[in-house]
Write a sequence for this structure.
């Protein structure tokens, strides 16, 4: 059983993932954090990325610099796809190994899984945790001790999540967004307390487990 939890910055998806992990004895796999680990575990990833991007991603001491990769990626959208083509096979293989170690029961947390064709058809249940953009912004600022400008800059890199929060990601969106929206099984509005979030999650899981 693989439960996918997604949502934008400040939505509460990490809290939701921990709740599900604890309640249903599911191993927790944070995809965003795991990618960072993969760069350290497999140095050949950085070498391959430098080859496909034609850019140096290491400092003068040969140490990989994530900010250099981010700068190159977001300078050109085609670079994002090039990076994902290199990194995603490692990520998917790492998750398969993770599942095998945990009896094939896990929560897969990712902010971008819906938008990635490489993960099409992935997961048994996809739950999107959402909240108004303004609330997400305040939460992220409080959580990270970051300025509004810094958080807004990060949020701008998640246009689909922002559109969902603003109610503008509808049937008239482009094909890739339409496919992403069609994959969502449940949307939980996380605007209240943690106990209210728990109740919503347990209700979704009860229905899912009764069906299956």
């Amino acid at each position: 059983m693989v439960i996918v939890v997604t949502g934008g910055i400040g939505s509460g998806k990490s809290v939701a993932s921990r709740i599900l992990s604890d309640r249903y004895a599911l191993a927790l796999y944070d995809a965003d954090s795991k990618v960072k680990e993969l760069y350290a575990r497999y140095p050949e990833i950085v070498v391959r990325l430098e080859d496909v991007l034609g850019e140096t991603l290491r400092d003068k001491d040969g140490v990989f610099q994530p900010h250099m990769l981010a700068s190159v990626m977001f300078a050109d959208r085609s670079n994002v796809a090039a990076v994902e083509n290199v990194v995603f096979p490692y990520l998917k293989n790492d998750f398969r190994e993770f599942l095998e170690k945990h009896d094939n029961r896990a929560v897969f947390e990712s902010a971008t899984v819906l938008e990635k064709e490489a993960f099409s058809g992935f997961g048994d249940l996809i739950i999107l945790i959402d909240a108004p953009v303004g609330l997400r912004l305040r939460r992220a600022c409080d959580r990270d001790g970051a300025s509004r400008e810094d958080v807004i800059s990060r949020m701008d890199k998640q246009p689909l999540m922002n559109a969902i929060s603003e109610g503008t990601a509808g049937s008239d969106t482009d094909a890739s967004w339409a496919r992403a929206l069609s994959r969502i099984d449940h949307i939980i509005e996380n605007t209240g307390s943690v106990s209210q979030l728990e109740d919503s999650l347990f209700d979704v899981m009860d229905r899912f487990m009764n069906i299956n």
In short: Strands lie at 2-6, 27-30, 106-109, 125-130, 186-189. DSSP finds ten helices and five strands in the chain. The mean pLDDT is 92.
